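Sanity check

After download, print the first record. It should look like this:
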Amino acid sequence: ESLACSSSKCTQEECCDFKPVYTEVTGSGSVPCDRSSSEFLGEVSSYEACTAECDKRGKACWGIFGTVDAFDTSRRGHCWVCPPGTDRGNHSDKYTYWIRNGVTVAEKSSWKISEYLTSMHIEHTAASDDNYTSDLIIMLAKSMGKSIRYPGRAAAHWDWENKTENSSQWMSFQEFLDFCKKTGVEKPTIGVNYLGPYCASNSAKCGDAPASSYYRDESASIASARRQVQKAVSEGFCGAMWYIGNEDSGIESNMERWLNHAEAMKQIDPSITIFFNANHLSADQLERILRKAGSRQHLIGGAEFHGKWPFAASCEPDMAESQTQGSTRCPFPRKGLSEWLAQSDLHSEDLSGNPPWRQRGLHLRQQAIKSGRPDLLLANNEFGFGWFKDEHFADDFTRFGISMVGIEFAMELVRGNYDMSSFWDTVGNARAGREGLVLYDQESNRLAPMHLGFQMLVHANGAEYLEVVAHDSAIRGFAARRPTEVLVFLLNKQLKPATVKISLLQGLDCQHAQASSVEDTPDHWGKFKAKHMDSDCIITLAELSFTCVEIPLSPAR
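Expected structure tokens:
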């Protein structure tokens, strides 16, 4: 309703000053709609004449022109209008048709976009001194969201105070705090080990001893967490973000221990925000956790969960369902480019049945409000890709194609009203597959194409979120409004260009707009490219591209 015209006595084009743009589609199989449900507009000599007749009727319709054998065998075209949602028919003749291609930006803001989206992630055992003292990584960190998550999954097993071998190949807590100072990050996201096991080495495993033999006493664990917060405060990081535990499947049964750690940490710095972590968090589980925390739920500042694409958990593709072992093994086949293009809403397959990433954020937000916690922060702080490219991705995925998935993933977390997101991983190691990392340390430390889209998205942080509705389902995006301009972000998720008209009900100054896009290159490293946009707000999006259009608001607004 917010996008509808105020007057019912004129067409949408007249009310909204909407100039239609059409995309030509040629194919065979069936004409776009059944002739019996279509309105015949007469014989026309050109595509423009057909669309003009369509526009006179003010309909968001299909304009068909060309040699449509099912209707007429002559070279002269017949113009037909197909009502939206009607039967597409069973004709098998060749046809050419045009679809109206518009992108409408909502006037009313839905929420303020968080400053902490599309942030950096550091797994401390894979962060060598060579990489994280380089100007390139420091530049990258400065260009991403306003937090950095550390030490990654190691929060489930590390002892932050103990030395380890090969210290030049990993990042200590002191080195991390120093890195935050260099990059200007004031609110890092820091992990606390509250369960164990505790390992002196940089290995993720502690040998074959029974778990009970190397879990630290709770009081000693709490004392360590207090010292860790005190260390951060002494280095100037008051009010930081903290997460207790990592990918914690036992958070409900360990709630009392978790709350005891959180309470002790807040005694040192009451201004910190603390996240719990539950990878497969659903709205129902969130309700249970908050209810179980009872009068102490104020200690819970946020809910953190992780998810990779194409699978939400580490899994082996092509496994039979009978071979799965709990939720950590998934019987899904490898994903190719065509499967990603067909996903209208980006989602990761898993055995827990969670919805697509955008809807998941919105559903959890609704549950938090229903539970009396509208202030609860939501974070996917390990969004990214599965362990092995060769196992998870089909061969038709190029480096650029995988990066475009990463850009869409980051965008969907913006569209889902998340409060924080960190991409896993910046450098990492060979386990993740080079194509799934931001930096290729075996390619002379060259940045993957996704970093271009990440830097574009960060410009939306802190702005007012505006919904975007595209007539073409292969085009998706959102807009961000600042006091003097609107930024429109558009992903063209198809293997062909698309010409679109951007429409805001009033106040856009497209004559002075600027646009740039991330587009593919022959070597699939991608590039930034300046784009032309005419005064009618019409722009052509390259195939498989991500575009940001900066449109000034008119002085009247």
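If your output differs, re-run the checksum step. Summary of this record's structure: The chain has a mean pLDDT of 78.
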